[in-house]
Amino acid sequence: MVNWSSLETVFLDMDGTLLDLHFDSHFWLEHLPLRYAERHNLAHQDAKDHVIPMIMAERGTLNWYCTDYWSNRLALDITELKSEVGDKIGYRPHVTDFLDALRESGLRTVIVTNCHPDPLKLKLERTGLDQRVDAIVSSHQLGRAKEDRQFWQDLHQLAPYQANSTLMVDDSFPVLESARDAGIAQCLAVLAPDSQQAAHEQHPDIPGIHHFDEVLPALRQRQSLPSGR
């Protein structure tokens, strides 16, 4: 599934890969429409019918992920509203063991996320995730979403890498396809990003796992090789 011995760098998505996507799903589909309904004296369902199609229309673009964009468009403080449900932020199963194994194997780990810096700060405060990886890059630093193939070329500015010895792990098939098309040698899909939702079907061309315990044994074998090889 993954050729660990050929790798030097592992790029990791955050939301839906390392962290449970339920936080974001609940926020955008339930909590935000609720607060919008209160602001505009609407029924909750009427607010959802208005807000959710507006959000979905931006899917795959940087605006989709941009807290500032939605704060301005909806006249709500998105970062503050996210903090109201911050107790839902948490790791997916086996993530801390996986990150510890990556570190022990000598692999360089970089979180590559579309998350805006403001909610990113909230999530790091809640999880300490930044202490478990070597670096974090937000697509907002580069002005392109990961779905954009050019993103991967621009990423060299902040996190130089050799494509032929890099793995990208993500729950988004469009992101993984973009990374693959940009030359990243190995891609791995997370099929169960949201603990409250059914898992995705397997991608026809990209291997997938439900949880990281499926790859931990092979990764730990790498640890026993000289210099992590």
TrEMBL record:
Any one GO MF term held by the record is:
phosphoglycolate phosphatase activity
Transmembrane portions of the chain: none
The UniProt entry, under Gene3D superfamilies, shows: HAD superfamily/HAD-like (3.40.50.1000)
Write down the CDD domains for this protein, in alphabetical order.
HAD_like (cd01427)
Q: Does the keyword Hydrolase apply?
A: yes
Where is coiled-coil annotated? none
What is a biological process (GO) this protein takes part in?
DNA repair
Its keywords, alphabetically, are:
Hydrolase, Metal-binding
Question: What cellular component terms from Gene Ontology apply here?
Answer: cytosol
* Protein name, per record: HAD family hydrolase
